[in-house]
Amino acid sequence: MDEDISAINTSTRNEKIKNFFVNNKKRIIIFLSILILLLFGYFAYDQIRKKNRIKIADQYNNSKINFFSGNKSNVKNEMVEIIQAKDKTYSLLALHFLLDNNIIKSKEKINNLFDVLINDTRLDKEIINLIIYKKALYNSDFETENNLLKMLSPIINSDSIWKPHALYLLGEYFLAKNEKQKSKEFFETILLLENGNSKIKLDTQRRIEQDFSE
Fold first, then answer.
1. Residue 62 CB neighbour total at 10 angstroms
2. Can you tell me the distance from the alpha carbon of 45 to that of 205, in angstroms, rounded to the nearest whole number?
3. pTM of the predicted model, to two decimals?
4. Which end of the chain is more exposed for a tag (fewer CB within 10 A), N or C?
5. DSSP string for 97-153
6. Residue 23 — pLDDT band, cuts 50, 70, 90?
7. Domain regions of the chain by residue span
8. What pLDDT score was predicted for residue 3?
9. How many other C-beta atoms can be found within 10 angstroms of the C-beta atom of residue 133?
């Protein structure tokens, strides 16, 4: 008797499953078609992205080779193009190359390229903070106090690992302007950081002893 009941239940369950697939055949086909298209699209996009990255890498390396071999005519445009491609690795390397070799003279253009990395390139937060710091360092020789503070505010108002570096830069900036009180305040803030960079703290302590001792 129990076996008969079990067989009936199994038959009923199988019939329900069969009816579900029959009644929802169109929906299931549409769902599977969409799933296949999404998977195909993902793998196609991934392949295109990898090919583009190889192309960018080749362009960066060839541009460097051309520069050091004396063929510098297109290097600036090629490096700018790489930065505007917003690649996580080579866009950053391209900007460093432009800066290290003083290829672009325009401060405005350099700052615009910094902003492409900071605002438009998908980078880790601390990499962005590093770029902000380097932008401030680049601007520190000619930028106004307010603009430099505004530039560094995302770092100095956070717990970034680059916070001590930003504070040290501001301390040096105001010291160079002979505004010792402001300079000392930034240096002293570094010493109060709980997890500050030990080397920066040591350099700060030496700077205070050297320039602020009475």
1. 13
2. 52
3. 0.78
4. C
5. HHHHTT----HHHHHHHHHIIIIIS---HHHHHHHHHHHHHHHTTTS-HHHHHHHHH
6. confident
7. 1-106, 124-214
8. 54
9. 20
